[in-house]
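Hello support,

Our group uses your service weekly, and this is the first time we've seen a run hang past the timeout. The protein is Nuclear transport factor 2 (NTF2) family protein. I'm not sure whether the cause is the sequence or the server load. Input pasted verbatim:
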Amino acid sequence: MVQLHKWSSYFHADGHETMNFLPSTALSSSSSSRFLFLRTTLLSHSLLLHHFRTCLAAEKVPGTPMEKLSKGLDEIDQSGEACSKEARDFRAKKRIADEIIPHILNLYGSCATPHDFEIYAPDASFEDPLMRAQGVKQIKSAFYSLSKVFSESKIVQYRIEENLVTPGKQEILIDNKQHYKFLGKDIDLISLIKLNVVDGKVVRHEDWWDKKPLWNRETVKVPLFGRVIEMTRRCSMLATHALMRFGKDPSV
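Update from on-call engineer: The timeout came from a worker crash unrelated to the input. Re-ran successfully.
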């Protein structure tokens, strides 16, 4: 006969464990082995539980695995917030292009209204190989004149690329194909429209025919020749501005 003691564990509200031994009992030799195996198994489980509670209690100790895990979760949260902010910025950026492009299509389609020119800042500029406009009224004259020269004008194909320059500043590139009809003759033109946008308003609008940079004092080899070209564009714009009654909106 082998004298053995049974034991039990109690988990208290504060998380610690108390082991209580029960009165001894006499066991037969045949059942002692099974009881020893059972006791060993239960003791192993108790030690594992005790180790687990120790780890939980140490979660606030600097350098412990639990603190590292908590820190990692915080970093994940911060990363998620950063991604969310980038996603919001991206959606805001796309909305700027979505708001501007319909007005650009109206301008080139000879169906512009005063509302379409609200995309420009008051001191915005427009330039293509023929004229150079400064201010919204001159830009109005430039586009209102299209219907006076061409019986048909429109952008038939386009692809948009938008780049964030700095916070609040974007560059919108419109790779497009323009169609005009002059004296019954169809004219197709490949163009690159460049829009510089600040705080949602266009401050610079360039139209590069055949996707070639505009000639000016900075892009030609002879600066004097570039100045002559710039003056020619300005004179063309002033003449057009006068003919279009200085940017007066057409009566509805």
